[in-house]
Write a structure and sequence with these properties.
The chain is of the alpha+beta class and 208 residues long. The protein has a single domain, classed as Protein of unknown function DUF1054 (BirA Bifunctional Protein, domain 2, 2-Layer Sandwich), CATH 3.30.930.20. Helix content is 42%, strand content 17%. It is built from eight helices and seven strands; from the N terminus they run ααββββααββαβααα. Strands 1-2-3-4-7-5-6 form a seven-stranded antiparallel sheet. Helix 3 packs antiparallel against helix 5 and helix 3 packs across helix 8. The longest helix is centred in the N-terminal third of the chain and has 31 residues.
């Protein structure tokens, strides 16, 4: 099965009240699509990065009361998990799809990776103008790439819970989101210019 696109029903998942009902919808509506997307991107990223890559689909297992406001897949070079490693994410909130190179707060060697990105600040700023930055993967808010400042990377380096995610947001109504072939093409187009930064993160991770 190939990915056919996200539907209005997928985004409406996040209006379902209660943990049990929302999780059931995530598992039946969205996670099968994540598997389709993820399987293709795992193979693509393995070729593009030269690393064996592994698909992880968020289980939200720690939640006992509050239903998740978003859900995602992650692709990393570690089979056991992704949170401690540089990884790529594809996921959705109720009002957008996100595609990220994600460096979240559990990241090992966060200081070294942040400094590698600080050294590459001008290269980051030269990424496509449509790119956005998130400093907290739990929040919807993102800033345009043009507003990225060195202070953001210093904050990422210095603050334990700080995060840095870079990529794109897409509206639910965008044909890129509703058309599976277009989405996969744009996912790869988003990922491609981020691969050099993924490699920088891996290299920084191995410096110690």
């Amino acid at each position: 099965m190939t990915f056919s696109g996200f539907s209005k029903e997928d985004f409406n998942t996040f209006s379902i009240p209660g943990l049990e009902g929302r999780m059931e919808a995530i598992q039946t509506r969205i996670q099968p699509k994540f598997k389709q997307i993820g399987n293709e991107l795992v193979d693509y990223l393995a070729v593009q990065t030269g690393n064996e890559m592994h698909l992880h689909i968020a289980k939200h297992a720690r939640r006992t009361v509050n239903p998740p406001n978003d859900t995602w897949l992650a692709i990393a070079d570690n089979k056991r998990g992704y949170k401690k490693h540089p990884h790529f994410q594809v996921g959705l909130f109720d009002d957008h799809v996100f595609i990220w190179l994600a460096l979240i707060y559990e990241l090992d060697f966060k200081r070294e990776i942040a400094e590698a990105f600080m050294d590459s600040f001008e290269e980051l700023k030269a990424l496509p103008a449509s790119f956005v930055i998130s400093l907290d993967h739990m929040k919807k808010a993102a800033i345009p790439l043009e507003e990225l400042e060195m202070d953001h990377l210093e904050h990422f380096r210095n603050v334990k819970k700080a995060e840095f995610l870079i990529g794109q947001h897409f509206s639910p109504e965008d044909s890129i989101v509703t058309n599976g072939a277009k989405f996969m093409e744009n996912a790869k187009q988003t990922i491609d210019p981020l691969i050099p930064f993924y490699h920088k993160a891996l290299q920084a991770r191995k410096t110690l």
